[in-house]
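Onboarding guide, step 5: your first structure request.
Type a short instruction followed by the sequence, for example:

Predict the 3D structure of this protein.
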Amino acid sequence: MARPRTPALLVVFAVTLAIMFAFATPVGAQATTTPPYGPGAQSSAPVNSTLAQIEVEAIGWLQGFLRINTTNPPGNELVAAKYLADILQKNGIQSEIFESTPGRGIIVARLAATAVPDPSRALLLMGHLDVVGVNKAKWTVDPFGAELRDGYIYGRGAIDDKGMTIANLAVFIAVKRSGMRLTRDLIFLSEADEEAGGDEGMKFAVEKHWDKIACGFSLNEGGHVELKDGKVQFVAVAASEKVPVNVDIIATGPSGHASLPIKDNAVVHLAAAVAKIGTYETPVQFNTVSRAYFEGLASVEDPETAKWMKSLDTADRGEHAARYLSNTNPFWNAMMRDTISPTILQAGIRVNVIPAEARGEMNIRLLPGNQIAPLLGKLRTLINDPQVKLEMQVSDEETAPSAPVESELMTSISRVTGQVFPGAVAFPGMDTFATDSARLRLRSVVAYGLLPFPLSTEDEWRMHSEDERIPVASFQKGIEFLSAIVNDFSVAK
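The system replies with structure tokens like these:
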């Protein structure tokens, strides 16, 4: 994406140097960066009188957060939770930390609208504390150094999900500083263990401390703000997500000396099974969310692509339309069907020994509401090999329902999108990955995924990869966007 103008970059750099060793210290300078995708419309809400200052401070908060290594496993997220608690305390907000297991847990804070809470109206802002691992040899910077370079902040978790967590924190603090009157409780949550299933984080929060986070609405990671040619095109709000299922592929056969080849070689049978699985394509299926997504996307796509999106549900051209879109974009393909990705192969102990067993693993992502048994039955028929069996790995994952595509919160998001990103539209979408929102949807919470930062495809795909980074301008614009949503939805007019 386009770089910020030089004067703005110097301001950000100066601020960063001043707060490098005191991450939560208020900064007197005010950012003047004009985002490359165009200035957003300014709301008249009181929060904006302090928001510009907080956007500058948030750069330091994010850098400090990124420097805390919360790679999961082992996580050790309580160090990060205490860091957030300190920032909140310095801004006059009390928080609570609950330990799920030594060194791990959650942090919760609340800004109450009334003396008697009404959980059905409360809005929860959530983001996780942990990050995935890194291969330092493939990074050009220290993954936990939070380096500011050429208008970007680098670090594991910059996008997934420490940037979101700090954006939530910034908006939460902006509400507190402004003294505005809330119409519903605003809750801040940051949880451990999202990257490894959530047992020590969101599951713990929901099962043991629901009274602290009970809400009717939530905003979490997921979705995306599509940036193309320096301009925000649309905002996809995740109303559902696919369900992950891991399956073992196990081939067996006689062992022996490699100098005497055998037809029942387990490695060969495994390879043949994986080849069949890898070329199999599940049928196209649509639901309320995916229909709403393609309908909304058709309004901003080029005429040729839009034509096929509008043809998906037609009897005469639907099949061709699905094939065209699947071949055009892997994300669109994953939105329309269950997907299967073989990911791990293991066999043998020595190069001159034919092993008695060869194993593989595949990651399946089911559309919401689909069951694994019919798909495994289809794959067993496809493989058609008595030497190969499929075994589902143990999991307590439940299929969560989708959030409604129409709601008070979605209305606010749509209204604010046009104000902050002129010309852009918002519509529901589906995440192909799993998030902690699923556990809230199981409790009938209107839980949406909305990573608020305008990001190019290149930057977004750095999540879980090398040199993860977030543009400073996008980070600050995301705070503005999230703040405008919270203001529209939760603040007395």
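Each response can be followed by summary notes, for example: The domain at 6-222+435-490 is CATH 3.40.630.10 (Aminopeptidase).
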